Amino acid sequence: MSDGAGCFTGDFVSDPSGAFEAELEDDANEEEDLEFSGAVVSTASPEFDIDTNGDGTADFTIHTDSTTRFDDPLTGVSSLAAGDLVKVEVEVQPDGMLHATEVELLFDESGDDGATGRIACVDSSTGATLVTMVFAPANPDHDFPALTLTVNLDSGTKFKVNNGNVNISGFDFDADNLSPGQRVTAAGGTASGSAPEVNANKVILKLQQLDGMMVGSADTAAGTFELTITSASDVLLTAPITVKVNLNTRFVGKLRGLSSLNNTDTYQIKGILMRDPAGTESTDVIFLAKTIKVKKGNAP
Question: Which helix (H) or strand (E) holds 52?
Answer without folding.
Answer: none
